[in-house]
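Field reference: "sequence" (input) and "structure" (output). Example, Cell division protein FtsX:
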Amino acid sequence: MIIAMREAIRGMIHNKMMVFVTMSVVAFSLIIMGAFSIATVNGLRFVSIAESKIKIEAFLEDGLSREDVSSLTNKISKIEGVSNIRYISKDEAYQSFKRTLGKDKDMLEALKVNPLPASLEIDIDPAYKTINQLQKISSKIALFSGVEDVSFGKKWIEKVDKIIKVLLLADFIFGIILLISSVLLVTMTVRLNVEARRDHIDIMRLVGATDSFIKVPFIIEGLLTSLISSIVSAGVIYGALYLLSVKFKDISGDINTITVAIFVLGLLIGIIGSKIAVDKYLKESV
C-alpha cells in the first residue's frame, strides 16, 4: 500500500497542472451541487409551509340561524379529510377585510351595509391537500343547503404543484450533469497519467503484476484528487450554511448531514472516475 501511495503521489506531481484543474472543477461542481441542494430543500420547505395554510372556505347564505350553522358544521365535519371548522361571522369578515385594506380602509366607510358573507373556514388533513381531494371535498360541501359558494384556491395550488415539480426536475437534471462532468474530468486526468506511464505498466505486467496491483496506484490518485476537492467543497458548504443559519433563522438544512454528503460524493466521484480510466486502458492494452 505504501508503494501504491508513493506511485499515486508521483503521478499527481508529474501531471500537476491537470490534477489542479480537475481538483478545482470537481470542488466547484460539488459546491454548486451543495448550494443547489440547499436551495431546493428550503424551496420545498417554504412550499410545504404554504401548503399547510391551504383551507376550504364555504360562504354561507344570509339569514342562517345559529341552529342552521351548527347543523351545517356538524354535517361538514363528517366528511372524510376535514379536520377542523371555524365559523367566521359577517362582522368578523368585515373587520378582517378592513385590516387587509390598511390605509384604504376608508373606502368601506361609504358602504351602508356589510356586503361580506359569513363563512366556514375548513381545515383539511395534510394527506387530502391535493387538487383532486380538495375538489371532491368542495363538491360535497357545495351540495349542502345554506352554502352559497365554496373556494379553495385551485389556481394557486396548481401553481404550487408546478413549482415543486420544476424544483425536483431541475435538481435532478442539474445534479446528473455535474456528476457526469466531474467523473469524466477525473477519468481524463487519471487516463493521461496512465498513458504517460505506459512503459512502466508494461514492465509490471512482464514481471507478473496482476491488473488489480496495477490499478491500485491510479485509483488512489483519483481518490486523493477528489479527497482534496471534497475537503475544500465541504468546508465551503459548511461555512456558508453556518453563516446563513446565523443570519437567516428560517434557513433549513442539517449542516453536518449536507457537509458529509458532499464529502462522500466527492470521494465516490474519484473512485468511479479513476476505475473507469484504468479499466478502459487495461482492457484496450490486452
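Strands lie at 55-60, 82-88, 119-124, 147-151.
The chain has a mean pLDDT of 78.
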